[in-house]
Amino acid sequence: MTSADRVKEYIDYVFTQLPLVSSRYALDALIGQYTGMEPEVRTALTQAFETHAATLGYNYADQASNLYRVQASLHEEREEWGEAVACILRVPINSNRRTIGEEERLSHYTHLMRLYLEDENVSQARVYLNKASSLLTSEIPTSLALSFTLYKARILDLTGKYLDAAFRYRDLSYETSLDPEDRYQSLSRAVLCAILAPAGQQRVKILSTLYRDERASSLSYYEALTCVFQDQILRPVHTNLLVAALFPHHLAQGKDGRSPLDHAVLEHNLLALSRMYCTISFSSLGRWLGVEAVEAERLASRMIREGRVNARIHQVDGMMRIPSDGSLHPTPSTKEARLSQMCTETEAAVRRIGQLNPSWLASVSDEAPLGNDEVERGMAFI
């Protein structure tokens, strides 16, 4: 009789001959030796256990949890992340016969977050992030809370939410319970995510904090960080420093053929140019950014609309104008004011005529006259 046969026979005896409490102790002892068994013995043990647990599993939830977690740890040692996930998913976390506390449930979900991240399955990692978020309380152990924060930061990073990820990594970089090297790596990731984040006030806020951290000066791309923080143009020498430090998903090209780094550099350089010029044509802006004038105008329009660039677009002239007084809507020039007044007075006259002679107005007008709101919107592009 082989070792596998003996293990199978022993499990049959435990389930059928021993009392419930004794059988649990016997199974705990056997599962404790699982890692030292030969592969065929492990397989026989699992098959025999599941055969009996199919009908009596609710009495052996703890033993099933221990068995599947031990199996998962062996797969993790071999970096078989998909198999490890399959084992953890079989742990009976929802059981009517077994009381499961919030801490154990949070630990279970956090473990799955890590395994899915290692398996490069971000969508499933997000599922368990959402489940775990509702379980966070002040009573959760610090080590578990830190693990959750780290995996949440990684998920935010992988899904392109760089600003949120930067804040999470920054918090980890200040955590004294972590090793200095781990804190430094968190700082580095916080800086990289902040550089990739959409240009705007929130990005300026976190960059200010990170740039003033004394540890930041030892980063290999500190020169690039300085340019970003000081609103200077990022040149190829700086982007090369960033490329060497970024992770593959930061450099992966999207549907438009550009990577997150490419988009970040375009947005940052446009913002930097808005600090340097009062007026710039879209053709010149495109040359600075290395894109066509139409694309430069499209990018500027989006950033202005989102409130991330303080400027106005003048489509007739093909220009972007930046107010020198810092106001988002600068006082119009004398020419613009006179033109606006003339349009308003003309509109008022047309309406008065229409009130006195509606049939005449209908005969000479194919469209309804513009209102003041439409006139003002039109003036925004003059």
UniProtKB/TrEMBL annotation:
Keywords: Cytoplasm, Nucleus, Signalosome. GO terms for cellular component: COP9 signalosome; cytosol. It comes from the Eukaryota. It comes from Piptocephalis cylindrospora. InterPro entries: PCI_dom, PSMD12-CSN4-like_N, PSMD12/CSN4, WH-like_DNA-bd_sf, WH_DNA-bd_sf. Residues 160-327 form the PCI domain. Its main location: cytoplasm. This is COP9 signalosome complex subunit 4. It is found in: Cytoplasm; Nucleus. Belongs to the CSN4 family.
